[in-house]
Amino acid sequence: MKIIICGGGQVGVGIARQLAGEGNDVTIIDPNPEIIQKINDTLDVSAIRGVPSHPPILESAGAADAEMIIAVTLSDEINMVVSQVAHSLFNIPVKIARIRHQNYLNPIWKDMYRQDHLPIDYIISPEKEVADAIINRLHVPGAMDSIPFGGERMNVVEVRCMDNCPLLNEPINHIYERFDNLRVSILGILRREMLIVPDPTEKIRAGDEIFFVADSQHLSKVMPLFGHEEKEAHRVLIIGGGNIGLFIAKALENEDTDINAKVIELNTDRAEYIATKLEHTTVINGSSLDQEILFEANIESIDTVIAVTNGDEVNILSSLLCKQYGAKMAFALINNSRSYSSLVGSLGVDVVINPREMTVSTILQHIRKGKVRAAHSICGGVAEILEIEAVNNSAIVDRTIADLHLPRGVRIGAILRHDEVIVPDDKTTILVNDRIILLSITSQLAKVDRIFSAKIDYF
């Protein structure tokens, strides 16, 4: 597939690296010469210097025969114009644009993005996606990540196993035999920064980060198996009243729960603004690094701190300070994950939120072919978790999992059949309309696509 990516920032480079690794023909456009030079030095893609919305630049990038364009520059307006030019002049079939400002995303203006107006096929809103992901994790106490699949009937959860994990040193196949009624399946193990796609004899060790898929209705029973019996948060402190913080506070207000939320916002005008948008949430104007402000927020009684300011350092320091003063759990938004990810866990930050990885995952969902219902990138792009539907003309229908001859690095964890979650074995036969959850390392994605493809050009 020929794909043009407009914007050479973290998201643009992240998606380019992933797509180029799968054999796609990728071109990146960015006006910064230093970024272009770095891309040329480190990635196997074409890189062109220029303003992505200018027709001659798009033409030189091969827009005439491109199949997809992804606009992820820092400017909403440039991303919009890119989509319009790509449609009007080059008839590029699929247009994806990142749009951040909420004034563009109000549902009352949704007709603006029709094909006969401003033709954007898929809009990516990073702040909304981050807020939704944080809410998902709040509802699975102890989880480092929690991603719903299968219409929220299944969850893929990432947990860290410590010395108190009851399953330590137990082979995976024994776990399935003991707890088969819970419908839980281990997809992958991150051990010392290396992802393992386990065979049935693999044992869980202290310090492992486990990716498992489970029936959503059983999560409260599954989490204790991995040593996590934390209670769901009732008192939440949000640090940062930007779009993400406001989204989270609004979502918590709209839920039918007894969660009590407070927001600390440094900027006075912004604090006054968000106070008018929230009904039951206390807004405190001040610095999250100020001891008096934290005590005003009753930090000693807070269950979960969610630090989502624009500064990585502020988020990390605020999280650690809050935990020192008595908060039980800390989430920190970290944009520059390469610099801080290996550090924050050892310091005491419980959950790291990586917005770049979330945006890449959202884009991947729209890039994968029609039978792929959802895609989520994990471990910095090392692997993906996919939800694939067995369509009527699929080559996998009426075959057992053993018959598929899955390559190393690929593991099927669960099947949603009608409303039933099934943990399959090699003898399980795949039926029409089954929704399959699997983990694949990135280098095997092309093989996965061939295995799960339609017998003819179904799409």
Q: What's the SSE blueprint?
A:
Elements: E1 2-6, H1 10-21, E2 25-30, H2 33-42, E3 46-49, H3 55-60, E4 68-71, H4 76-88, E5 94-98, E6 122-124, H5 126-138, E7 145-149, E8 154-160, H6 172-178, E9 184-191, E10 194-196, E11 209-215, H7 219-222, E12 235-239, H8 243-254, E13 260-265, H9 268-277, E14 282-285, H10 291-296, E15 304-307, H11 312-324, E16 329-333, H12 337-347, E17 351-353, H13 355-367, E18 372-378, E19 383-389, H14 401-404, E20 410-417, E21 420-422, E22 435-441, H15 445-451
Parallel strand pairs: 1-2, 1-4, 2-3, 4-5, 5-6, 12-13, 12-15, 13-14, 15-16, 16-17
Antiparallel strand pairs: 7-8, 8-11, 9-10, 9-11, 18-19, 19-22, 20-21, 20-22
Helix pairs in contact: 1-13, 5-8, 5-13
Name its key features.
31% helix; Rossmann fold; six-stranded parallel β-sheet; 459 residues; globular; 25% strand; single chain; 4 domains; alpha/beta; Alpha-Beta Plaits; 22 strands; 15 helices
**Percent of residues in helices:** 25-40%
Main beta sheet: strand number and arrangement? 6 strands, parallel
Number of helices: 15
Q: In the CATH hierarchy, what is the superfamily of the largest domain? A: NAD(P)-binding Rossmann-like Domain
Strand content: 25-35%
Total strand segments: 22
Stretches with pLDDT under 50, minimum 5 residues: none
Question: What's the pLDDT, averaged over the residues?
Answer: 90
Domain module tally? 4
N-end to C-end Cα span: 15 Å
**CATH C-level label of the largest domain:** Alpha Beta
The CATH architecture classification of the largest domain is 3-Layer(aba) Sandwich
**What structural class should be given to the helix and strand makeup?**
alpha/beta
The CATH topology of the largest domain: Rossmann fold
Gyration radius, in Å: 23 Å
